[in-house]
Design goal:
Radius of gyration: 25 Å
Number of strands: 29
CATH class of the largest domain: Mainly Beta
Oligomer: single chain
Helix content: 10-25%
Largest sheet: 8 strands, antiparallel
Strand content: over 45%
Number of domains: 4
CATH architecture of the largest domain: Sandwich
Distance between the termini: 37 Å
Number of helices: 2
CATH topology of the largest domain: Immunoglobulin-like
Structural class: mainly beta
Length: 343
């Protein structure tokens, strides 16, 4: 595949650079090792089709050279891509209810079209299926060797015998918030990181070899994730992570919980002696999260996992809803609570 050819060429370049570096200082040798790590990271990102992550944006990329066939929307007729005269290209997927018209792309050159969207708009799910639509009628069909492909199905779950592309909200980032490390395995040829953050994809997240093992840093949305390593085809849990859950294969998945700081504010109540924050995130404790008095009222900052959280304030022993939060919900016991969403 193009991916392995690219990786092979880059490894050859690394070896040549490394031999030259041996004649220089140890500082140069370290630079070469860092360079190799960046090459592998770049290769796995370049291999994703249809999009890339740039800062806080998702950039959808349609390149007609990536496609050989297209399917006519009304009749399902398959045509050769080279016979298409492209007037416009749209992005259609789960994120826009598979609209063929809303997300029009901008032509960059004779082969490529692009559309930029904010990454924050794609935080409700770990992954999204999508496709490109030509002239509002023809679906560009991903090839079998596309890494981020998924079997397309109709609304009733029946296979359509073609592929969709997949966009993952998790992505490699040098200064990301989730670092995965596997020590040892110096003789391994390739190690893959896979988990719920990429729907257990077995190809995309190739780990980088370092001096004491393998590592890869991702940027993940807040939430709880299960994951495993694939060492030369063999699946294994993280030996250095005691947190794990049983899976359907009579084994275990390692568990990682990504949390972000969130500040709760209760305005007013300047005459109160003590205010407690209580919620499902601290088992409704009546003591642990004592809020601090401020010029405007009371505040408390804590780490929260992604998703929905119920909470209340306890003002001098009296339980109250958040008066500045209109979002409320009943719990299983019939109590009404304020609701906080973390994304």
């Amino acid at each position: 595949t193009d991916y392995y050819q690219l990786s092979k060429r880059k490894i050859i370049l690394y070896k040549l650079s490394y031999r030259a570096a041996l004649k220089k200082s140890s500082l140069h040798i370290i630079s070469v090792l860092l360079f190799l790590s960046s090459l592998f990271s770049s290769a796995q990102n370049d291999d994703l089709k249809g999009y890339k992550i740039e800062g806080d944006d998702v950039v959808f990329i349609f390149d007609k050279r990536d496609y050989k066939k297209a399917t006519k929307d009304e009749h399902g007729d398959v045509i050769d891509f080279k016979n298409l005269n492209i007037d416009n290209v749209s992005v259609s997927g789960e994120f826009n209810n598979w609209s063929r018209h809303k997300w029009k792309m901008t032509k960059i050159d004779d082969n490529r079209y692009e559309l930029r969207k904010r990454l924050i708009d794609f935080t409700d799910e770990f992954s999204w299926e999508f496709k490109f639509v030509i002239n509002n009628s023809f679906w560009a069909e991903p090839t079998r060797n596309t890494v981020n492909k998924a079997d397309a199905k109709d609304p009733y779950g029946s296979p359509l015998h073609v592929y969709n592309l997949k966009l993952y909200t998790a992505y490699p980032k040098e200064n990301g918030n989730a670092s995965f490390k596997l020590k040892g395995f110096e003789n391994a040829k390739k190690i893959i990181l896979t988990g719920t953050f990429n729907r257990w994809n077995e190809q995309i997240f190739v780990m980088n070899k370092v001096s004491d093992g393998w590592e890869l840093t991702l940027q993940l949305n807040p939430g709880e994730y299960e994951y495993k390593f694939i060492v030369d085809g063999k699946w294994m849990e993280d030996p250095n992570n005691p947190s794990k859950k049983a899976n359907e294969y009579d084994g275990y998945n390692s568990v990682l919980n990504i949390k972000v700081p969130h500040t709760f504010i209760l305005k007013g109540y300047e005459n109160a002696s003590k205010v407690i924050l209580s919620g499902d995130f601290n088992d409704w404790s009546e003591n642990n999260y004592q809020m601090k008095k401020t010029s405007e009222g009371w505040s408390f900052t804590c780490l929260l996992s992604g998703g929905k959280h119920h909470y209340k304030f306890i003002v001098d022993g009296n339980w109250i809803l958040d008066p500045n939060n209109t979002v409320k919900e009943y719990d299983s016991d019939g109590n009404i609570n304020s609701v906080c969403m973390i994304r």
